[in-house]
């Protein structure tokens, strides 16, 4: 990792990541998707993975700048930080908000990377015991969890997942070689590349979405404050260090779950800090704990996300799905065998997280004025450039105008999905995990001579499928509990037996 070449890749990754994190609407998934075609031409995949990890981390750091100064979260995981951060900026405390976000992110990311270093290989050792039916159940759990918990509507989530599964089935059958959904086109025999789907959904779809609402985007940037003002006072440090640790404790395990990601832990951290704080009156008006906790949870979740990605080959967020596609582009399959077959690459990637974190701390605090200038880039020019870059990238990978048209067709679908509030992540998971899930399902049936009970007689498989069902029910549980409590209260009011 300390070789000049890999240090350069890490520096490029964290710089580009911070840049795109600062720009509203451009997240790490879109950036990595745009860079995928370029990195496939590199001699070694290690540099590409190091750069992608830097982009992911950097975007989370940069997202706090947009949330605090513009009240426009670039990522959904930055929404909780924007609640208090923007209010602090309006009160002239932007520097303190940015500092607690940056230092908290550094602390959380470092602690969670230590956790990744300690737990990743033992978990990969356990995953070696998985059989085909276990992988099928795990894929079902991952898709059901993300589908149920990411979007606001379960129906919309399932429809998005169905679209992803359909796209994943296009091409030749992995077991029989039969053409499926190719409509007689030779171009579709190899299926629809995940790179094309990702570039279409994120680059084209996001550009169209932003173009449709340009006039409604905020343009006023909150002032940084006086140049001689302290970044953080002693009181700020005292109020921030425990939220940093608590946010880390919440974010890391949540990131490692099949329904992982950073959205849920950031809001949990914010809610917890609000309830236990001695300064409850400040919440909603600029409480520093409301920035420190969620930002720590946000960055800790990333290291957690890498655990199922590296050990099981299961992505738990849209960006993790794009990173999985980058591994597959280099013919490397994340999973139980990854640490044995590609150990040097994996450990270099994990080592890069420590160095990348230090680079980000150096980048974020001294250069904050430069990142504020990035917010002033005209949106039309920015997104026009993204579309050009996306088109060139797709053509460079495929060499086919048809594939470029498919990418734009997928982008049009992405625009419609954003317009009507359909989640994007289930589509990506369906495309990536769908073929693997189908293959493992059919292999299990071949070994068991078509006996479906094999999915329920093996304890691990049954538990994973049970968790998948629970994930679908989970969003409705608060409503059901509230309804049951209401009925109980009504019976007690009328003196009936409970």
From TrEMBL:
Q: Which Pfam families does its entry note?
A: TctA
- What stretch or stretches form a coiled coil here? none
The organism sits in which domain of life? Bacteria
On whether Membrane is a keyword of this UniProt record, the answer is yes
Q: Which residues form the DUF112 domain?
A: 7-429
Q: Which UniProt keywords apply?
A: Membrane, Transmembrane, Transmembrane helix
Q: Which residues cross the membrane?
A: 7-36, 48-70, 96-120, 132-151, 158-176, 188-208, 345-363, 383-408, 420-437, 457-477
User: Which PANTHER family is this protein grouped with?
Assistant: TRICARBOXYLIC TRANSPORT PROTEIN
Put simply, this protein is called Tripartite tricarboxylate transporter TctA
| Organism for this UniProt entry | Actinorhabdospora filicis
Taxonomic placement: Bacteria, Bacillati, Actinomycetota, Actinomycetes, Micromonosporales
